[in-house]
What we know:
The chain has helices at residues 11-20, 52-59, 73-78, 80-100, 134-153, 177-186, 206-218, 236-247, 271-277, 285-300; strands at 2-6, 26-31, 42-46, 64-67, 105-111, 157-162, 164-166, 191-194, 200-201, 203-205, 224-228, 234-235, 253-256. By secondary structure, it is α/β, with parallel strands linked by helices. It folds into two domains: 2-164 and 204-228, NAD(P)-binding Rossmann-like Domain (Rossmann fold, 3-Layer(aba) Sandwich), CATH 3.40.50.720; 167-202 and 232-300, Alpha-Beta Complex (UDP-galactose 4-epimerase, domain 1). The strands form four sheets. The protein has a seven-stranded parallel beta sheet, sandwiched between helices. A two-stranded parallel ribbon has the order 7-10. The mean pLDDT is 97.
Amino acid sequence: xxxxxxxxxxxxxxxxxxxxxxxxxxxxxxxxxxxxxxxxxxxxxxxxxxxxxxxxxxxxxxxxxxxxxxxxxxxxxxxxxxxxxxxxxxxxxxxxxxxxxxxxxxxxxxxxxxxxxxxxxxxxxxxxxxxxxxxxxxxxxxxxxxxxxxxxxxxxxxxxxxxxxxxxxxxxxxxxxxxxxxxxxxxxxxxxxxxxxxxxxxxxxxxxxxxxxxxxxxxxxxxxxxxxxxxxxxxxxxxxxxxxxxxxxxxxxxxxxxxxxxxxxxxxxxxxxxxxxxxxxxxxxxxxxxxxxxxxxxxxxx
Length: 302
């Protein structure tokens, strides 16, 4: 099978390439940023997804697509036009090329942030969507475009809504909680929590996700939008203490007022996922943190 991975140099993309390295698939690693893929079965193609001609050229002859490319959430509030150009127009370029070249299935990485204000926990897939960022609006729109493209053009798709993903290749510069806290703890710097730190999140290890992406690309599950978490809640304060144990330090924790718009509890209802795949991500938070910290020590030299 010939697989095109868009956003291949990113956090999830690098892990997906590692996952695909253990298969017989031919992998085309596509990104606007040049890099050298490590797996022998992968080759790099420089692609800006806003360039429809280039996207069309690369997708010709592809069997399945993993679409991970995205303009990030924090930057979306600063430049919503650019976010729409990349996350909406760029995605539509991929979908149009996919239908033109009879691609069998498109995997799309969506985000739990499209939910917005939480009315029900655990959060089911049919929870009302009220995105509070341009990034969330774009993710939600592509979910709907995929449904329309399936109805109009018979293009099959699979969507995972990522919850709090962490793991190797996620850098502290991303602003994500796990790499930021691990990095600061390793450098004997303080960290902070807002409010009482009892707000809960659903932390899911990235290599669990990539294994299911490959299973989804290879298997029969299609035309579904599915939560991708562990279905387990972890308090932010407990997460910090768990990370401190992994680094083997005593954390210096500063307390700050809780943000008025901060969500208290947020974790995935994974019953639909279990029904479709027969199980769900099972790497414990401690095990995932240990593997993440080992990568940070080796690759980031923290």
